[in-house]
Amino acid sequence: MTEFTSPLQDTSLSGYAALGFGEPERGPAVLALRDNLELRLHATMAPLPAALRSEAISLIDAYGGGPRRFIGLFYQPVWSYLAWLPLDGAIAPDLLGAARTAQALGLFLHLWDDHLCDGQLKVDQLRLQMRTLAWMDYVAAAGRLCAACAPGSGAVESATGTYLSAIHAETGVPDLAAFRARFTRQVAIWTLVPRLIGTALGGPGTGDILVAIVEAFSDAWRLMDDVQDVEGDLLAGVHSAVWHALDADGRAAWDDCRARSLAAGVLDPASWATLHAFLQAPACVPHLLVQVYDSIERAAALADGQGWTGYAAELRQHQPFAV
Prior knowledge:
Blueprint: H1 28-44, H2 50-62, H3 81-84, H4 93-118, H5 125-149, H6 155-167, H7 176-186, H8 188-202, H9 204-228, H10 230-236, H11 241-245, H12 248-264, H13 269-279, H14 285-305, H15 309-317
């Protein structure tokens, strides 16, 4: 087995990584769901030869760079709706199992694809095969769910097509709004199960609302993640949400700090101080954090409107600050 270091280990120096969401309560139902999703992810690796299967499971278990399980890498609201919503009796047990499998694998694929493609995860035969198995099981589980909840809708083909198109040969976007809209397309494999589950509960309109909740929280996550990762994105030349929120002078400071830091091999203190002033301008990081707050509150309000009070409360527990 090859030595593995998780690409998620934090090595930032700038202090932005210390920002984050609030900690939600983790009741028995949510914890049980998390464990079930983890087991379903492990089960996907069963077709591998025994030695490779053991290595695959070890890779999954080590991915958090610490004690977190793989599913624990994802903030609860993108999967916990399966614990909070009144699904017993509304969805047959085997279909609920398919929903759980598809959601677990949708989360896995989004992260695995991202890290394989950007070089954070070394490409080898095992990691490619893990991706292949996950994709096949995702499509199969989602297909079973779709056939029961929204037959003839083409929802699986639409979601997978949207996802693949959004992440393939990624090109630049003109502004922050387009950046956020693109990320919504990139999480289409996260929102497929919510659409189908919501449709089963209350029809297509309810499916749209559950999708909107998961999309809004995912948008908040994208913005927060980019604020936290500003140093790494700077050095990597990534045009993140933070970069899009800078004005022309701020982007010039970004470029200067990146060039000086790459030349020095460390974050350059003088040029970082200049850039930091632009980052703290009202239209940049403070604006992004307000957008985080607004997106989470919008998601919680939608959940309240459906009577999903436990889910709404969990969403609000993620708020990183008060305004």
